[in-house]
Structure formats: structure tokens, C-alpha cells
Write a structure and sequence with these properties.
Elements: H1 7-10, H2 23-34, E1 41-45, H3 52-63, H4 78-82, E2 93-97, H5 104-114, E3 124-129, H6 136-147, E4 153-159, H7 167-170, E5 174-177, H8 183-197, H9 206-213, H10 217-229, H11 238-245, H12 250-262, H13 265-277, H14 282-301, H15 305-308, H16 315-327, H17 330-347, H18 353-365, H19 373-390, H20 413-424, H21 487-504, H22 506-514, E6 516-522, E7 525-530, H23 533-541, H24 544-555, E8 561-566, H25 599-603, H26 625-638, H27 648-659, H28 672-680
Parallel strand pairs: 1-4, 1-5, 2-3, 3-4, 7-8
Antiparallel strand pairs: 6-7
Helix pairs in contact: 5-6, 8-9, 9-10, 9-11, 12-13, 12-16, 13-18, 14-16, 14-17, 17-18, 17-19, 20-26, 20-27, 21-22, 21-24, 26-27
Length: about 700
């Protein structure tokens, strides 16, 4: 059994109606044929495989049809059958390959034979393929014949380089430029041919075939013929097409793009290692990555690009492109694409393409180190995207201004203690007016003055009305919003929150970068997972949750309630990954060394943080007796008359507030634990107390 012909030969068009993507040429030719206004010489130019020679044969077939003048050959007469697909050919239609017959002697031989009349047909047609290969002397030998041919003679020149055809010949022809076939039209055509061949082809594989063909119908059909020949029972799959054609798999491109958007250098260089270890060409990988960034640039600029067909991709890839473009900014995408485009040019002929690829990835990952206009624009774009997510133009605007308080040295220390207690202890409805809101100040400053009366508000906090309305003190600025953020937004903004905790409390930053990851966001509840119970207990007992809460307000503008759980799969948050949604995760029991707080204190919005009960673990400031006494007096005054005496944990919290060092107010006034953490990177495991 003989092997079938190649696809591009089996499906060669026989009429102008079957030629795809060249309507700007075929329609005028059909009109000229139907109106009997055919010129004596034509010049068909365009890229290879776009239908120039095929159209020349159709034109010759229509000219010699017995029903001429006619727009399309009838396909029934002898001339039409001889020139049909698989026909024997006609002696009156002569095809010449100018690549091997372009000399002056060949032109003279053609000139001598051209004057003889056709044998069976109406016209003798010369189709000169690769006409740009005819020498200048050969064109000059044909010039007189092309300018004034006999009535029975027609010339059709076909070339990919019309500029190399001498102007004297070009000016005597009708020039029809052919074009590359559009990708969407080619995809539809391939799908139709696959159905005719009875071979299944995945929608995700079609763009790869079209891309390999480069807009040429002949080249594309050759690629499809190769894939059909090697297809198994499943047909032409995306895996088969990407592997056989040498393209980078979409999964690998998705991985590196997600790593770029999250600033995850480890994952980026891991992908580069996979590319090299699997034997792929770094240049082809760079080209494929540049094409993916091009698609993302278009999706970012035109939200409906995938739906309108502006980008010809499969449906599942279209969804991934939209999600990836949302995690990038337009400036960052453009900057990354420029870096890769420049690097792709430098990689041609390079002896170490992997090294260049890794350097390109490093430049894409570090917009902060790029002091050019593009680097500054990329950093500005990050700030704008943060503002678009949180609804605030900056971190400073995301918080309401706090009331002004007098300097610590100009007011009694006892006045600072009630304000500090108002930040940490949720008191019931007071009978006497509560103190007016004041900014958070170090509550442990020593002073010798007597405690003021609790009914009197501080004199240095002016109010717009002589009769201030009693209201609970606000420990932190009012955030803008946080409930509208999604898990993708959290992943995008979380590295900035983690970096902000570094200047507030290094212990919190160490926990977030070494032991913790985000595991869920449910409304305003942000759940953090820790690798083990010890790390979680240390995070809670050292008051790091409040540091993260304040950092989220200042950086993101989101008022998150921080919850912690034990997650054995937690990884360091240098490249945070949101793994799953949190649906009210069950809190993990604390260790026996740290008693769980009572429900009333935990659920209260202004409940003291967990570190407030650990009085002995915090260093005491000089002469703390006056501040502690003031704090305890504030507890007594804020309780309703007849209520039970303050609980032990409330008094312990007051003592801790009066003595603890406040890193937010003075970063240089560090406690022993934080000083060790900052200078040595150490953490206290157990403190042995001696009587």
C-alpha cells in the first residue's frame, strides 16, 4: 500500500474560493477573470507557503477553461482536469524554477519558444517561480517579450523578494502582494482538516502548530502532518506537540511567572535549573517566556483580550493569563519584557546561555536595585497596585490621625499608666467618665508625682467641645478596610507586611520568615500556620500578633484579627504562598506552661495581648513602683462600684504594661530579649530565676 501524499499536496486549493487568508488578492483576480480583463503579466509576491504558486496555477486553469471567461474553473473540461490536483498537467502551462534556470541562456531559450502557439489551450502560460533568482541579464533578455508579448502568451512571476525583480519588469506587471495567514483563521482550517483526517487534536495543541507554521499554510500543514503521523490513540495532544516541536510546557511558564510575581528567587532559579537539566534550549525558553510576558502585557492593557480573540489561547490558559496579569503591574510587565527582549538578542551566539538567562532573571527580580526610569516606575507601580487593592493612596493615609498627647517628660507618669491600660484591658461600662484618647506612649517612665484623679482627663488633649463625650480609647489608628481583600491580594502584599515588622519587633520578623506562613483569610480573620507548637506559643507569648496586626494596618490598611494554628507543612515566609482557605480553623491548645486566657478577655476587642500576663519575662525600668501603683489604681477606678476586685491577670497585665519597653515609641530602648534578637539573632528558650 502506497503512503498517502503530504497534507499540503492533498489539500492544495483548486479554486480561488478554497484559498484561505488571501481574499484581498483572490477577489480582484476573480473579478478580472469574470470580466475578461486579464493582464498579460502578473507578479505574485509574499512569504513562502502563502499560496503564490497555487494561485498562479488556478489563474492559468481559469484562463484555459472551456467556459472562460469565468471566475472559477469548471473542473469538467479537459484543461481543468489536466491542471487539477493530481492531474497529468498541461503542455501549454509551463512552470520554470528560476533558482536553477535564471541565467541569460535560459531566458533566451524561453524567448524563442514563447512565440509558438499553444497546442490545445487558448493561452500559453509561463509560471516563473522564485523570480528574484533570475539574473539581471536574464531579465533584460525577457524585457521586450514581457513588455509586448503575443496575444496567446501570459506571464506569472512568483517571488518572495519582489524588490530583487528589476524595476523595468516590475513596472510591466500587475503586482499582487500575498500575506501570512492569520492565526485564528489557520486554527479553524487545521481543525477542519483534522476532522477530515479523522484525527483528534486538543485545542491547546492548535496554537503550538500554528506558531510553528509561522503563518505559512504549507509549513503549518507539514507540522500537522508530522504530529498526525506520530499521534497515538489520544490524537494530537498538547504534550506531544510541545515535546516534538521543542516548546516550553505551559506548566513551566506558569511556575516561573508566578515566582516572578511573588518575588520568589528560589523558585525562579529552580525553573532555570529544570530547563537545563531536561535538555531544553535556554534561548527557546527565553523566547517562550518573552511571548508569555507579551500576552500578559496585552491582557493587562485589554481585559477582554482572551474573550475577544485578541490572544489565541485555550480557555484554561486564558483564565491563568488573567490571574497572572492581575498579580503583575503594567510597568513591571513591560520592564521584564524589555529585559528579556534585550537578553534574547545577546544570547544569540553566546557560549554560556544559562549564565545569561540567570542574570536576566536576577534583573527581573530586583526592580529595587534598578535605578533607571523603568526601575523607579516598577516600584511606583507596586505602590499604585497596593493602593488599588486597599483603597488607600499610601500607608499613612490608611490610618486616621491620633489625638495629640503631651510629651512624656511634661506629664505625670501616673497619667500615662491609665492610657496604657486603656490600650490593653477591656473595661466594662464605667460610671465615671473615661480618659480621653491619647497616643500610645511608654508607660514605664519613672515619675515622683502622685497619681491624678481618674475622673479628670489629661489637660494636654484639647477637645472641640467643652463637654467631651466619654468613649473608649483607640490603641491604633482606624484602618480603611480589609474585608475586600482576596487570597491573591494577601499573597501580593504579605512580603511588605513581613518587612514592616522587622523595624517594629525583630522577634516577630524572625517568626514570620522562619516558622510561619499564611494559611487562610476568612473575612477579617487572618490565620497564620506555624511549623510546630513551640514556635506558635513563642509567637503568641511574645506579643508578636499585635505587631503583625499593627503592621497590616499601616502597610495594607486591613484590620485583620490574627489567629494562629499549628501547621506542620508551614514553610518560611520569604516567598509566602497561600495554601488554602480558612473556614474558622480550630485553635490549637497552648502549652501547659502558658495558661489559656479566659473567654471574656480573649473575645474583647481591646483584650490585653498574651505577653501582658508574663510580668517576670520583661525587664523592669528604674523605680517602677509608682507606675505600677498608678496602673493598679486605674484598674480599680475603671471598674463599676460594687464589682468584684480586679482579677489577678488584670493586675499582672497592668504591671507588665507599666514595666515593658515599647519598641514602637523608641526603637533604641530595647529589652533584653529583643536586644539579643537584634544583635545576635538569638531567642530566649528558658529563663532560670534565682531567689
Amino acid at each position: 500500500m502506497e503512503s498517502p501524499l503530504a497534507l499540503y499536496r492533498r489539500y492544495r486549493p483548486e479554486t480561488f474560493a478554497e484559498v484561505i487568508g488571501q481574499e484581498h488578492v483572490t477577489e480582484p483576480l476573480r473579478a478580472a477573470l469574470a470580466g475578461n480583463r486579464v493582464n498579460h503579466a502578473y507578479l505574485f509576491s509574499g512569504p513562502r507557503g502563502c499560496g503564490k504558486t497555487t494561485s498562479a496555477r488556478i489563474l492559468a486553469r481559469a484562463l484555459n477553461c472551456e467556459k472562460a471567461p469565468v471566475a472559477d474553473p469548471c473542473g469538467e473540461c479537459d484543461s481543468c482536469r489536466d491542471l487539477a490536483r493530481g492531474g497529468s498537467g498541461s503542455i501549454d502551462v509551463i512552470e520554470i524554477d528560476a533558482a536553477s534556470h535564471g541565467g541569460v541562456d535560459d531566458a533566451r531559450d524561453l524567448r524563442e519558444k514563447a512565440f509558438f502557439a499553444p497546442v490545445r489551450s487558448k493561452y500559453k502560460v509561463y509560471i516563473i517561480d522564485e523570480a528574484h533568482m533570475v539574473s539581471t541579464q536574464g531579465f533584460n533578455a525577457l524585457l521586450k517579450l514581457v513588455e509586448e508579448p503575443p496575444e496567446h502568451l501570459r506571464f506569472i512571476f512568483a517571488t518572495t523578494e519582489p524588490d530583487k525583480v528589476i524595476p523595468t519588469i516590475r513596472s510591466r506587471t500587475h503586482h499582487y502582494p500575498f500575506r501570512l495567514i492569520p492565526p485564528r483563521l489557520m486554527s479553524s482550517y487545521l481543525d477542519e482538516l483534522a476532522r477530515k483526517e479523522g484525527v483528534a487534536i486538543e485545542p491547546a495543541a492548535l496554537p503550538l502548530v500554528v506558531r510553528a507554521g509561522g503563518g505559512s499554510a504549507r509549513d503549518t500543514l507539514s507540522v500537522l502532518d508530522q504530529l498526525i503521523g506520530g499521534a497515538g490513540p489520544a490524537g494530537v495532544t498538547h504534550e506531544l506537540a510541545s515535546g516534538l516541536l521543542g516548546y516550553t510546557p505551559d506548566a513551566l511558564l506558569d511556575e516561573v511567572v508566578d515566582a516572578f510575581s511573588a518575588g520568589d528567587g528560589a523558585s525562579v532559579f529552580s525553573v532555570v535549573d529544570k530547563v537545563v537539566e531536561t535538555g531544553q534550549d535556554p534561548r527557546r525558553f527565553t523566547e517562550d517566556l518573552l511571548r508569555r510576558l507579551r500576552d500578559l502585557v496585552i491582557v493587562a492593557a485589554v481585559p477582554g483580550a482572551t474573550a475577544s480573540g485578541l490572544i489565541d489561547v485555550s480557555e484554561d490558559l486564558a483564565d491563568r493569563l488573567v490571574a497572572q496579569a492581575a498579580r503583575f503591574g503594567a510597568t513591571e510587565l513591560s520592564r521584564a519584557a524589555d529585559i528579556l527582549a534585550t537578553g534574547l538578542t545577546e544570547m544569540r551566539g553566546a557560549t554560556a546561555p544559562r549564565l545569561l538567562l540567570e542574570l536576566l532573571c536576577a534583573r527581573v527580580l530586583l526592580p529595587g536595585a534598578d535605578h533607571t526610569t523603568d526601575g523607579l516606575a516598577a516600584r511606583l507601580d507596586r505602590l499604585e497596585r497596593r493602593a488599588a487593592i486597599t483603597g488607600t493612596p499610601s500607608a499613612a493615609a490608611s490610618a486616621a490621625p491620633a489625638p495629640t498627647a503631651p510629651p512624656a517628660q511634661d506629664r505625670p507618669a501616673a497619667a500615662a499608666a491609665p492610657a496604657a491600660m486603656a490600650d490593653t484591658v477591656a473595661a466594662p461600662e464605667p460610671v465615671a467618665p473615661a480618659p480621653a484618647p491619647v497616643a500610645a506612649e511608654p508607660a514605664a517612665e519613672p515619675a515622683a508625682e502622685a497619681p491624678p484623679e481618674p475622673e479628670r482627663a489629661p489637660e494636654a488633649t484639647p477637645q472641640p467641645s467643652p463637654q467631651p463625650t466619654p468613649q473608649p480609647a483607640q490603641p491604633t489608628p482606624t484602618p480603611v478596610r480589609g474585608s475586600s481583600l482576596s487570597l491573591v491580594d494577601v499573597r501580593l502584599l504579605w512580603p511588605d507586611v513581613v518587612e514592616s515588622t522587622k523595624t517594629r519587633r525583630r522577634m516577630a520578623w524572625i517568626h514570620l520568615t522562619q516558622n510561619c506562613q499564611v494559611v487562610g483569610l476568612d473575612g477579617n480573620v487572618l490565620t497564620l500556620g506555624f511549623a510546630n507548637a513551640g514556635a506558635r506559643d513563642s509567637f503568641v507569648s511574645s506579643g508578636c500578633a499585635e505587631v503583625v496586626h499593627q503592621a497590616a494596618i499601616d502597610v495594607v490598611g486591613a484590620d485583620w484579627k490574627i489567629e494562629t494554628i499549628v501547621d506542620p507543612g508551614a514553610q518560611p515566609e520569604a516567598a509566602p504562598v497561600v495554601t488554602r482557605a480558612a473556614t474558622d480553623p480550630a485553635p490549637v491548645a497552648q502549652s501547659e506552661a502558658q495558661p489559656a486566657p479566659e473567654p471574656a478577655a480573649t473575645d474583647a476587642p481591646d483584650a490585653p495581648p498574651a505577653w501582658a500576663a508574663d510580668d517576670e519575662a520583661r525587664p523592669e525600668t528604674p523605680d517602677p513602683s509608682a507606675a505600677r501603683a498608678a496602673a493598679r489604681e486605674a484598674i480599680q477606678q475603671t471598674r463599676p462600684k460594687g464589682a468584684e476586685t480586679p482579677r489577678t491577670d488584670e493586675l499582672a497585665a497592668a504591671d507588665a504594661v507599666a514595666s515593658r519597653d515599647d519598641l514602637d515609641a523608641d526603637p533604641d530602648d530595647l529589652g533584653s530579649e529583643d536586644l539579643l534578637a537584634r544583635e545576635l539573632g538569638a531567642s530566649t528558650i528558658e529563663e532560670i530565676k534565682h531567689s
